[in-house]
Amino acid sequence: MIVGNLRHLATRAPVFPEFSIQWLLKELETMASALWDPFVVLDTDAKNLREIATYWMGKTHEDHSRRLIEATLDTDYAQHYKNAS
What we know:
mainly alpha, 85 residues
């Protein structure tokens, strides 16, 4: 078994924008004040994440999954699904 962390420091966490970027943009400013697992994001990192996000908008795994789900739902359910997101 191989163990370790994807980052060079244990206090860091990798970000995978190809899976989902919307949640990160929504929570970027409040991560440091989170009640559970507060997470400090350096200003330079936040700036880089916002720049990276412009590329990934509409191209993430989450976006693809949502399009597939909406395409298979009945029209009434699809509208409800969109409104709930």
